Every structure is written in C-alpha cells, then in structure tokens.
C-alpha cells in the first residue's frame, strides 16, 4: 500500500519554479477548461449547440445565484466566483480519474526508494487551496475598497471608539481565519478523500471503492459550491456599507 | 512557520498557482462568461420581444374578428333592407303594371267595339246599296216586260227611297 504524503511531490523544474505533480495537473485543468470553453463559445448563437447549452445552464444558474446575493455588483463578482467553482469542481473530478496517484515512478529520497505519482488531485495540495484562498481574500478586499472607497473601508477595522476598535481587531483576525478555513476546508476534504480511496482500493480494488468514488463526486461538487458561495458571501458582506449592517 | 513547511508550502509554488488561476480567470471571463452572458441576455430580450409581438398579434386578431363580425352584421342588415326595398318596389311595379294593363285592355276593348260598330254600319250601308242595286236591276228586268218606262222609274224611285229611309 502506498501512503499518500501531505506534500505534493516534485517531478521537475522549470527555471526557479519546482514543478510538482499538482502544479502539472492544475495546468492540465486550466488548459482543459480553456479549450472546452473556447469550443463552447466558438460560434455563439441564439440557438445553442449542446455544449453551449450546457455552459449556458451552468452560467445562468451561477449568475442567478450571484445576482440574488449581490444585486448590482453581480457583473464584477460573477467571473471570480464562477471561475472558483469551475476550476475547483473540474480539479476535484479530474482527480478521480484513473491514473491519478497510480501512474508514477520510483525515486530515491533520503536513501529510501519512494513512489512519485505524476498526477495528484490538485486540491490535495495545500499550495493550491491556499493560493485560491489568498486570491479570494485579496479580491474581497480589493472589491471592498473599490465599492466603499478607502476611507469607509478603513473605518471597518480602525475606530476611535474603544469598543469598535476591539471589534475591528477581531474582524482583522477573522479575515485571516477566513483564509485558513477556506484553504484547509478544501484541502482537508479532498486530501481525506484521496486517502480514503487509496485505503479502500488497497483493501480490495474491484467494486468496493465504487461507493466511495460516488461519495467523492458529491464531495467534489459540494466543496466547489461551498468555496464559491463563501467567497461570494464574504465579498458581499465586505462591500456593504458598515453602518447599514447595524 | 513550521506548519507551513510540513504542508509543503513554497512561495514560488503558491505564486505559480495564483498566476495560473488569474490567467484562467481572465481567459474564462473573456471567452466564456462574456459571450454566454451576452447570448443569454440577447435571448431573454428576444423572447420578451416575441412575447410582446405575439400579444399584439393576438390583440389585433381579436380586433379583426370583432370588426368582421360587425361588418357582417352591417352587411346582413343592409341586405335585409335591400331585399325589403326590392320586394316593395317589385310589388309596386307589379301593381302598376296590373293597373296599366287593365286600363290598356279596357281601352283596347273600347276601341275594338267602336271599330266593330263602325264596320257593321259600313257593312249595313254596303249591303243596302247592293240590295238596292240588285232590286233596281231585277225590277228593270221585270218591269221591262210589265210596266211602262214612266211607272218603272216612279216605282224605282219609290223603292229606293223606301230602302234609303229604312
């Protein structure tokens, strides 16, 4: 039985950037998404092709969701949260394909021979989820400044009133908590799924893992939706005027 | 930051993933969301327009139906009226012709009667003339043998007179 390491393995190097198996897969996912969306929108028409129809359904549903919560800001927020959703769900589901974690090579590390898979589900690497969480957090604050103005934005964190000053400090802490919770929630779910699948497969590789694969499909969708919704809610909360909340 | 180390966080990897994601975000925004959202909006607009058009067409159809009914009613009324008029006129014409015909017949009959009277009178005259001539002739033949010329003439004259005044 191969144990799954917490750390993604390095399989190459481009310039200064170490290419890990997760980085490789994230490129694959990106290219896949780009190609499929280019095909879907190559000839956009009022009478849609099946693929266009499929994306219309997803985007329409997502946009309705975003518009429900953010109203007039939907146009700006939508691309970000929709990309989170599409990227995460594709990453999670691609990570379930055969070959992930099983195709690889053996390498000497610290005097021991270890197995290095070429493909690894990208959200089972904290680098990826932390990157997503950071993008989410930075975008939240950038949008907050954009919609509130720098002055109103700062008023949320700093106040002359001691009580509100304390609340502001708590809020600053909560902002960091958000990043950690976003990244570790996604990482934990997907990594745990990988471990479960590997364990079950090592017990009996035929048929027995099927229910778990099904479970992972659901988890993959739910985590993508959760990440999208949380980012959306954070942005909406932060871009609202402070005074209106109380 | 030992915990980050144990999770294998590397700034370069982090940066690579962020850049990767941002590029994806940009491309998807440009090539997926924008055209799809546009086509969705277009379709929405088109459907709204079509619905509006359909409503208008329906309304117009209804109006046309009402108009037609109204026209039909009017035409039917007019036709009835015309028929009535025609019947009346026809009746009048027939009546007039009847009258005229009756008058004509009466006139004709009168005329024929007069003619007949005249003809009869004329015929009578002619017959009398013929009879007189015949008498004269027969008397001449008869008298030649019995009467003198003088008596003859006298008698003829008397007879003729008698016939004449008969």
Helix/strand/pairing category of chain A: mainly alpha
**Helix percentage of chain A:** 55-70%
Please give the number of β-strands of chain A: 4
Cross-sheet strand order for the largest sheet of chain A: 1-2
Q: Overall pLDDT of chain B, averaged? A: 88
* Largest sheet: number of strands, sense, barrel closure of chain A: 2 strands, antiparallel
Q: Please provide the ordered H/E string of secondary-structure elements of chain A.
A: EEHHHEEHHHH
Secondary structure topology:
The complex is a heterodimer of chains A (246) and B (166).
Chain A: E1 10-14, E2 17-20, H1 21-40, H2 50-70, H3 74-94, E3 104-109, E4 112-117, H4 126-157, H5 162-203, H6 210-239, H7 242-245
Antiparallel strand pairs in A: 1-2, 3-4
Helix pairs in contact in A: 1-3, 2-3, 3-4, 3-6, 4-5, 4-6, 5-6
Chain B: H1 2-6, H2 11-146, H3 149-165
Helix pairs in contact in B: 2-3
Notes on the protein architecture:
The complex is a heterodimer of chains A (246) and B (166). With 246 residues, chain A is mainly α. Chain A contains 7 helices and 4 strands. Chain A is 69% helix and 9% strand. With 166 residues, chain B is mainly alpha-helical. Chain B is 95% helix and 0% strand. The longest helix of chain B is centred in the middle third of the chain and has 136 residues.
Short summary of the structure?
The complex is a heterodimer of chains A (246) and B (166). With 246 residues, chain A is mainly alpha-helical. Chain A has seven helices and four strands, in the order ββαααββαααα.
Keywords summarizing the entry:
heterodimer, A: 246 residues, mainly alpha, two-stranded antiparallel ribbon, two-stranded antiparallel sheet, 7 helices, 9% strand, B: 166 residues, 3 helices, 0% strand, rod-shaped
